């Protein structure tokens, strides 16, 4: 004999319904929190990436290396001589400027080793 929700005693069916609603609300909260991580912090400085001014101050150079070939970890293409590149300061990994600049506007870490990019006078709380 199978038991359905309509056959349960009234207090037990109410408890089951409340439990389902609570689980649903918890799942909704987690989904919203994961998809919008920092939207409710209006007064705090965004520490996720470099600003346009900070990015312009970052050094870039024309790649020149004789011998071993280097690869950009973002586009996975080889870095050729005379291509405009940036070296990530803490770890010295080299990337194409057109690849690393969009990355740095969203992230403060090296795409290869996750070293933190530190900008002078940048304080985040």
TrEMBL record:
Q: Which residues form the RING-type domain?
A: 72-114
Annotated PROSITE patterns: ZF_RING_2
Bilayer-spanning residue ranges: 12-32
**What Gene Ontology cellular component terms go with this record?**
membrane
Q: Which InterPro entries match?
A: Znf_RING (IPR001841), Znf_RING/FYVE/PHD (IPR013083)
Give the primary localization class.
membrane
Report the SUPFAM superfamilies cross-referenced here.
Answer: RING/U-box
Entry keyword annotation includes Transmembrane:
yes
* Cited Gene3D superfamilies: Zinc/RING finger domain, C3HC4 (zinc finger) (3.30.40.10)
Where is this protein localized, as stated in its record? Answer: Membrane
| Signal sequence annotation | none
Which Gene Ontology MF annotations are present? zinc ion binding
Looking at the record's lineage, which domain of life comes first? Answer: Eukaryota
Record keywords: Membrane, Metal-binding, Transmembrane, Transmembrane helix, Zinc, Zinc-finger
Q: Which family does it belong to?
A: Belongs to the RING-type zinc finger family. ATL subfamily.
Name this polypeptide is given: RING-type domain-containing protein
Give the originating organism.
Coffea canephora
């Amino acid at each position: 004999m199978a038991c359905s929700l309509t056959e349960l005693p009234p207090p037990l069916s109410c408890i089951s319904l409340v439990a389902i609603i609570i689980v649903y609300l918890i799942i909704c909260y987690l989904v919203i929190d994961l998809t919008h991580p920092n939207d409710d912090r209006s007064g705090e400085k965004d520490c996720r990436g470099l600003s346009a001014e900070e990015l312009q101050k970052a050094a870039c150079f024309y790649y020149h290396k004789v011998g071993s070939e280097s690869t950009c970890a973002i586009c996975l293409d080889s870095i050729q001589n005379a291509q405009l590149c940036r070296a990530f300061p803490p770890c010295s990994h080299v990337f194409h400027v057109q690849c690393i600049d969009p990355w740095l506007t969203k992230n403060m870490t090296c795409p290869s080793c996750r070293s933190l990019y530190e900008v002078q006078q940048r304080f985040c709380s």
